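Illustration: DUF3617 domain-containing protein.
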Amino acid sequence: MNLATRRPFRAFAAMIMAGSALALAACSSEEETAGADSEEVMSLDDAAAEYAKLDKPQPGQYDMKVEILSFNMPGAPENMLDMIKTNMESGFADGYCLTPEDAEKGFEEQLGQIGNGGQCDFNNLSVDGGNVTGKATCEMQGGTMQMGMNGTVTSTSSDLTVDTQVETGGQTMDMTMQVTQTRTGDCA
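Result:
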């Protein structure tokens, strides 16, 4: 299944992981794991209960736009930002179809995808109306990724700012993105 047919947060999680891996693969060769965030960790069940407060997404065709607001990776080749932008933006050029079956599951199941099969811990995840804030710390091959998000989610759209910090093999990367998704109609 390609990214365009997956649920919004599953596709977004895959995009974050792929972008982070692409950035760091070019610059790191040693394995090193950073420590987890010192904030209180939420269980996946508790995090899913927070996400269950959101209105379920409507099925249909969605447009997704990713804008990289900032990128810092000491020692990275000058063309690294262009490679990452191209990788992330091209993955959703045609949007994606959210099926009725996937929409019925709501947003909470996507946490398992962001949670990367139990390799991520959630911190301070909060849903208040359509406002979403939270952090995740994920163990990835050779290092750690910390991701913070802040924004709004409705049944037909989302607008999230995502801050990502990755540390692996002695290399660090900081990136901030604006990710917007909008329902544009029924699936083709």
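Reading the tokens back as a structure: Residues 8-25 form the longest helix (18 residues).
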